[in-house]
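Entry 14. Two folds queued back to back today. First construct below, sequence then structure tokens.
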Amino acid sequence: MEKKMTKTDILRKYCRVATNQDDDRFVGIQGDADGLFVYFPLGYHLSDEDSKIRKDILHLFSIINEFKEEKEGSITKRNNNETTNVEFPLNAYMEIIYYFLKNGYYKETDPIYRTQNKGKIHWSKTIKNQNPALIKNNNSSYSLIYTNFTVRDSTPNEDKEITRINQYCVYESFKKIGWLFNSYMPSKPLGKLNKNKSLTILQDKLSNTNDDDKKRLFKSMIEMINSMDEDSENQFHYGTYKFEHVLEKMIDAMFGIEHKDDYYPKAEWNLKFDNDARTYPLQPDTIMEYNDKIFVIDSKYYKYGDTGQSKDLPQVTSINKQITYAEYAKRLEISEGKDIYNAFLLPYDKESNKFGVNDLFVNVGEATGEWRGQNMDKYEYIQCILIDVRYLMENYKINSEDNIMKLAKAIEGAFDENKQYV
């Protein structure tokens, strides 16, 4: 039964978990004139409260920003029945919102001058405009003493063009992603933004300030305006249709060794008519070491953890490749005398799944190659491990002994100590 929406979890209506089926593979944020949604990866368990969901979304953005391999964010513009894509500068939008929440709209200040006996003295105007008293000193010399000064002060000027540009940028930022922060929506500025004039003003401001906060703001406004045109209802997205690459990198960061290229199987061509016949090595996703054992791990962004259907498991080509990785590793001097294990890692949600389990790592079975015959080595029994996606995303930067131990136990636990292996 669908959970009833409350005032404390209204952000949830903007969130989806991608199924990784057909057209539902995107992970990130997408928006157009009809609405805006955030898509989490397969196996992710969404929080219930606004404060937690907000953290989840911002954390998702940071992961995508860290691991995206190409321009994964874009705005689709439609002009004269043609479509073009430009990069969607998510970080610029967020910087503009951060500055606004901290300081309000950006305002220039105009200097004003007052006559008074204290304050920030403007000496050239004081000398020009104030009448000093002539005081005789004890040595019969004279000194000029000012009893009043021309003091410099400032007052915000909200009529300057830079403020109007900032108001426009703040409005567009809140319109697209402001709901991440609160329910506030600023008023829509009057009139249209002159793109070329605005960029000229911002470039001038950027080149004439040493204030780091202002520099970040001006750069962000420039990025935003460069990505926009007169049609502010264009579609945009920031994310990836290939989250499998992100999953691989998180798993490798969490469990892998740094020198895994030692385990890359290589080949070469010796040709009669061509001396330049390079081949590229096979590259396992992750090599993990624990207790003098080697674990060859392949990350698969497959649906089995969600569907529980065998058709969503790795197929024979992946199984064969894993055996090749392990056979090559066994021949290496650095692995001499060590047990070698093989495993697939698939995503799942430990809070909601078809298996009735709630462990961070779950061994759901093993794959073997029928062509391998009898008396197989341990690495020929390729274990299938489900890993909780939320836990992975929250802990992938921690390459800890504890996490490595938990995964090793999930893999090794499938083997009978009394059985003989090659």
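Second construct, same run, same settings:
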Amino acid sequence: MHMRVKDRVAIITGSGRGIGAATAIRLAEEGAKVTVTDVEQSTCEETAAEIRKAGGEAIAIPCDITKRQSVEEMVQTTVDTFGRLDILVNNAGITRDNLVHKMTDDDWDAVMNVHLKGSFYAVQAAQRHMVEQRYGKIVNFSSTSALGNRGQLNYATAKAGLQGFTKTLAIELGKFNINVNAVAPGFIETEMTKATADRMGIDFEELKKAAAQRSPLGRTGKPLDIANAVLFLVSEESSFITGQVLYVRGGV
């Protein structure tokens, strides 16, 4: 089997569950040594254990992405353990949905801090190692919500912000042979979208059905659909692609 990221060292933030976990597992299957990092120790351990059970290499490091020291220690532990750092996937995210007139300062700040400040801290710590070795792949997570989504003023703003963040990093880091791209998922079946259904007071199966009907492909996305897109963007196959936003949303 062709191992597309053999012996590359990867950090995937928010990889305790959902899309992050699927991405960590997928990269490990293709030969990467993975740092699983999330805010909760237990979920990190679960994903890392799954990777190890399948014969892969992984360490679990709990980390609050909104705290600079926590992020820098997580990156340093990764380098100390595996000897280098090649791939950073900024997947960690939260939602605090509300209409504009109901949105609180906390709703706004929490979402901005995780998506924007967290990605900034992770990139700043990771790029030092990537610049030194003249090699790196960074994938940030935007979203279809960046194009506007009712009840998600904070989330849509943060996800649009990450597109500008991605394009600027691509310009700054390109000369060091570092590719920086973003994926923008559409409706993907995860705990996060299930929580959205609960908040809206509708059955998750109904929400999935409605999303599938809107898609030209007639189905909803699975975490693996996103993981495969990330795998392409961190592999050698995409070495001439940088500063791009790849919408993975079944055509809608």
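Quick look at the second one. Strands lie at 9-13, 33-38, 57-62, 87-90, 136-141, 178-185, 245-248. The mean pLDDT is 96.
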